[in-house]
Amino acid sequence: MGRKLILLIPILAAIMVFSCKSNPATRHDPSAPITEGTKTTVTHPAQIVEVFNPATVSKEYHSTTRAEVQQFIQRLNQIIRARNYSAWRETLSQEYIDTYSSPARLREISEQPAMKMANITLRNLNDYFTRVFVPSRNPDRIQIDNVDIEFISEYRVRAFTTRVNNVNQEVREILYDLEKINDTWKIIN
Question: What tens digit of pLDDT does each residue of 108-165 get?
Fold first, then answer.
């Protein structure tokens, strides 16, 4: 056993030396971000992370994106009014479909007190659409002109509206998290 350990130590040391070798082209102070256009690259010892800066979005791009999102939400409101499951499903990202089709997630939602009181058990994404999504959205109260966006990344936005509550205060209400996938806006988680 002692002999095997003695042979193993140089091998492990060699692996550590070669796996920790730095790349001089990427070496810099980790606290100093590198800015390129709308993205900031921050290097950490083990990874490179790009951080999006929403302040770099041009007014034109913001305006164009806001108009696209407003059109998307207007179309989505029509889908909700019609209770059109197949059209709604086309507005979803694969991530959203996978999450809300998951038996574990459907069971979790079904276990919520309001669902238990209404004796609702979700079995599939269609149940989720019919029993949760549609009742939780009132397309008539969303005024499209009042929908605004905030950028999460270049192709991800959070759509929200501002409404006045019963004590006359403005309240920001998140409507959807959206991502532009293949030039089409989709609902994401």
Answer: 999 999 999 999 999 999 999 999 999 998 877 788 888 999 999 999 999 999 888 8
Q: What is the pTM of this model?
A: 0.70
Task: State how far the alpha carbon of 126 is from the alpha carbons of 57, 70, 93, 185, in Å.
Answer: 37, 25, 15, 21
Query: What residues contact 132, with CB distance under 8 A and at least 6 apart?
Result: 109, 115, 122
Contact 165, 79 (CB under 8 A): no
The Cβ of residue 16 has, within 10 Å, a number of other Cβ atoms equal to 10
Tell me how far CA of residue 155 lies from CA of 73, 142, 150, 183, in angstroms: 16, 23, 11, 9
| CA torsion through residues 149, 94, 83, 132, sign | negative
Structure tokens at 170: 């403005």
Angle at 107 between CA 75 and CA 129, to 5 degrees: 15
Question: Which H or E element spans position 40?
Answer: strand 39-44
Cβ neighbours around 129 below 10 Å, total:
21
For residue 55, give the H/E element and its range.
none
Q: Where are the domains of the chain?
A: 26-56, 57-187
Helix (H/G/I), strand (E/B), else coil: 26: helix
Phi-psi region of 37 (alpha: psi -120 to 50; beta: other; left: phi over 0): left
